[in-house]
Amino acid sequence: MLSDDIKEQIRQAYAKIIAAKTLSPRWGQRQMIAEIANTLGRIPSATARAKPDAPAVCVIEAGTGTGKTIAYAVTAIPLAQALGKRLVVATATVALQEQFVNKDLPDIRHHSGLEFSYTLAKGRRRYVCLSKLDRLLAGAGGGDILPLYPDEFQAPQAAEALPVYSSMVEALARGEWDGDRDQWPGQVPEEIWAGATTDHSQCSGRRCPNIAQCSFFRARDELQYADVIVANHDLVLADLALGGGAILSAPEDSIYIFDEGHHLPDKALSHFSSFCRLHTTGQWLQESRKLLAQAAPALAPLTELRRTLESLPGIMDETQAALQVAEQAVATLFAERPPGSGRGDDQQLRFAHGLVPPSLQPLATGLVAQFQQLTGGLGRVEKRLEEALEEDDVGIDKSELETWHLTLGGLLGRAEATLALWLEYAVTGEGEVPPKARWITLLDGGGQFGFDLRCSPILAADILQEFLWSRAAGVVITSATVTALNSFERFILHSGVPREANFKVVTSPFDYSRATLQVPAMSCDPGDAEAHTAELVAQLPQLLDHTEASLVLFSSRRQMQEVYQGLRDALGELILIQGDGSKQEILRQHREAIDAGRGSIIFGLASFAEGVDLPGDYCRHVVIAKIPFAVPDSPIEAGLAEWVESQGRNAFMEISVPDAALRLVQASGRLLRTEQDSGRVTLMDRRIVTRRYGQAILDSLPPFQRLLPRQGGSR
């Protein structure tokens, strides 16, 4: 229950931070504080026996400028402390994570009067593995430790990698570096870093001889004593996928706050999907067989493993042969695929309703049996090696034993991940509610070859119910964009958040009358792509002020590039186009031009429509080329639409329109970033006034002044 003492502590903390920072109390912040306090107040104390009437979950849409960080921090921190729970704050990106822990939390602790500790949490792959470094530099395993996914990371050249690894070891020894990739001075190429880090399948944990110096475990140990753990969505979901409590505190002992929480469902789907690249998995099995041939004599003193080690190469040969048969079957499916079964570029084959073709299912069943044999054998070997690391004398050098443990752990991890995919293809898919998306992509370019098989849920609702909503002590979801068409239904559908949760919309304190929304008169709409592009080229020189900062957002890379080519003579010197440099570099050049008194125009895609902060003179005009309906090439989105249609419902109105409305709100949100900002949003898409769904989208946008064309259309 929410005691009077806790209420007073929250009130005092908020009052102190507002006074110390000479801020004006915001009604939206007070609403957030009340909503979070009432929600988390449902969490029973450690001695309580009765379960709460409703889950301790709230979803809060807090408009830009609300000051949500202060609101959730001053409320959740004292409540978590009083309940004996760990507060886990998850941001959408590592960059936001570091801002929160390096700037926001120190500031809140300093000014609010709250006493709390906090630390930053990152996954294993953000830290160097000292055992791997030792072996790479000693030449005792650089070629023996097979990467988990060699098809994703090309092995670095020794002449390039070894000096970097030596520098890392020296910096660790001098105490000048803590093993965190983000703290290393300078950039490390991905392939070099991949060779020096590990994941849970290759890590021997507390049995590792380097455990006392392990960067990851030292960072993880700090998590046990912190009141607040700052993570990102990916790390929280990775921990939940491992059962919870593997890296962070157990869900039952945690209160989670997901900032930018509208990303949570999509992030969850990526963590609970499976895949297998046929050609490179076959290559991996071939290389693994060679390694196991070396392992048998090296591990001969462990006599109980002899039979298993001798059998594994044969199992790998049989598995590789079965994969080749499956690859031939997939090639046949591609050759015989019906029109419209995938993307327009003919590189994809999506199975309607997620149903596995009869020709592929029995092959998948056979591969399940093969990979079960493989994972069973590798699991027995890996477990015995882990035990041997703690034994005094097993007749094998400890360093060599550790090398083989890393290697076999990596083989087991890859085999288990591949087994997960074939389990999904060994079923018909009939009766799944909702169905899963299953598809195959032809890889033919960029160094990739063969077929990539994938399976993913189309909604994260069941996943999050099983791993988060039903287990966590409390959850707060907050973002500036959670609702679509002024409703939480879209988020409920995708996330499965309990309907008994608290839902709240906190409006922005910004004065939207300082900005206008304009829809110019146009002779065509984006349905005629060529004509629409030509009209953009014709109108933009007059719409854009050459002396100010503008952001032009496109839904199609092809259209963006065609418009750029059409405007090179008129506006070429002012335009910074996505793809000509990193996002950070484009934003830097843009700000530099504005600071110098020049105009600047950014041409960008979806990544510039969210998370870009260009306050004041850095952005006075946002142009949106068209209503951002999703490009219909995602098998997950296609599978969801197909499922909705199969129930006699309208997927366009239920899925496409709410999704587009949400993206349009995010894009238009690039304009006003502070209470003093002003400017205009121009939408180059007359469908918002001519189509019957247009009014619903208009009504979901911020209350800008509107300049709309007078033209008819069905409502």
UniProtKB/TrEMBL annotation:
Catalyzed reactions: ATP + H2O = ADP + phosphate + H(+)
One Pfam family cited in the UniProt record for this chain: DEAD_2
Alphabetic keyword roster: 4Fe-4S, ATP-binding, DNA-binding, Helicase, Hydrolase, Iron, Iron-sulfur, Isomerase, Metal-binding, Nucleotide-binding
Cofactor annotation remark: Binds 1 [4Fe-4S] cluster.
EC number: 5.6.2.3
Residues that bind [4Fe-4S] cluster: C129, C203, C208, C214
NCBIfam families given in the database record: PRK11747.1
Family label: Belongs to the helicase family. DinG subfamily. Type 1 sub-subfamily.
Protein name, UniProt field: ATP-dependent DNA helicase DinG
Upper taxonomic lineage: Bacteria, Pseudomonadati, Pseudomonadota, Gammaproteobacteria, Cellvibrionales
